[in-house]
Amino acid sequence: MSAFWSATVALTLAGLVGVVALAVSVGPETLKLVPIRNALLKRLVLVIQPAILLFLCALIGAATTDAAGTRSLIAEWAAGFPPAPAALTGVWRVALLGILFGFSLFLFDRLTKPYWAPPGRGPDLATDWKPSGFVAGLFYGGVTEEIMMRWGIMNLVLWLLVRVTGGADGNPSLLMVWVAVAVAALIFAAGHLPAAIAGGLRNRGFIVRTLALNFVAGLIFGWLFWSWNLETAMIAHAAFHVGGAVLALSLRATGAKPA
Predict the structure, then answer these.
(1) Which residues neighbour 164 within 8 Å (Cβ) at sequence distance 6 or greater?
(2) Is 169 helix (H, G, I), strand (E, B) or coil?
(3) How confident is the model at residue 29 (pLDDT cuts 50, 70, 90)?
(4) Do the beta carbons of residue 102 and residue 30 sit within 8 Å?
(5) DSSP line for 189-206
(6) Is the CB of residue 78 less than 8 Å from the CB of residue 2?
(7) Rounded distance between C-alpha atoms, residue 24 and residue 254, angstroms
(8) Which of 20, 194, 224, 253 could form a disulfide with 233 if both were Cys (CB 3.0 to 4.6 A apart)?
(9) Is the predicted pLDDT of residue 251 greater than 90, yes or no?
(10) How far is 228 from 248, CA to CA, in rounded Å?
(11) How far apart are CA 133 and CA 27, in angstroms?
(12) Distances 188 to 52, 67, 156, 209, 220 between C-alpha atoms, Å
């Protein structure tokens, strides 16, 4: 198998773990969006659609990574080039910063809730947090979304910018990089709207909040992808959800009331 297909298959298989975790964890509000009566078929649809998108993004990323100047340790390993141990040097710092970032962003979201949600409405971390959702955050968010958004979308945007401007393969300008980071982050943020709106809120403040928080997170994950590798972004994204879990369990332990 060629390096291209090896990378595509390896990243698709890695991302499928997250797809299954998401399908198992979705609640009744999200299932209502699927126009099928049978509950099992609803969950199968929730697997098939993201699985196809995952494969396409793994394929696109494998085709554009050289021109984009990015890397994935999983892709390199699958292609027969085992990464050097130094490739993950300092990864524990990324994990710790990801936890701190997640804790801080979820806390900010809670403290600002009066500005984007009517009293007594909207998501609340202390009451809504569930282990199944946490697992989905770790694997779908931390692995699958990063393959889709960073490896697929961001690589594609970088490839297009390099081709349009006549730049050198593997060496895009800093401006190109940040354009690609921002575009991928915006798509990442918009992708969270349907599930968020399924919870019942549709007011302007809630939509702005959902887009803004996810956009900021997407910028950070994109920067990590470009600066190091895809797996660093994955670790930071998964750790982000660990930070949210720490805050949720802390709120419950202290008997905090819903915001």
Answers:
(1) none
(2) coil
(3) low
(4) no
(5) HHTTHHHHHTTS---HHH
(6) no
(7) 29
(8) 224
(9) yes
(10) 30
(11) 9
(12) 17, 22, 14, 14, 12
Mean per-residue pLDDT, 147-154: 98
Give the chain's largest Cα–Cα span: 59
Q: How far separated are the first and last CA of the chain, in Å rounded?
A: 53
| Mean pLDDT over each residue of the chain, to the nearest integer | 93
Bin 72: left if φ > 0, else alpha if -120 < ψ < 50, else beta. Answer: beta
Number of residues written out for the chain: 259
Distances (CA, A) of 159 to 25, 137, 156, 189: 35, 29, 5, 21
Assign 3-class secondary structure to 45-105. HHHHHHHHHHHHHHHHHHHHHHHHCCCCHHHHHHCCCCCCHHHHCCHHHHHHHHHHHHHHH
Other CB atoms closer than 10 Å to residue 154's CB: what's the count? 34
Q: Which helix (H) or strand (E) holds 210?
A: helix 204-227
Give pLDDT tens digits for 74-131. Answer: 999 999 988 877 777 889 999 999 999 999 999 999 999 999 998 888 899 999 999 9
Place of tokens 């994935």: 72
Does the CA dihedral 198-200-203-205 come out positive or negative?
Answer: negative
Average pLDDT over residues 188-206: 90
Q: 145: exposed, middle or buried (C-beta count within 10 Å: 0-12, 13-18, 19+)?
A: buried
Q: Which of 20, 23, 8, 14 is nearest to 55 (CA)?
A: 8
Q: Which of 254, 128, 100, 256 is nearest to 199 (CA)?
A: 128
Phi (first) and psi of residue 70, to 5 degrees: -110, 175
Question: Given CA atoms 134, 136, 141, 143 in this order, what sign does their dihedral have?
Answer: positive
Residue partners of 172: CB distance under 8 A and separation at least 6: 68, 69, 158, 161, 162, 180
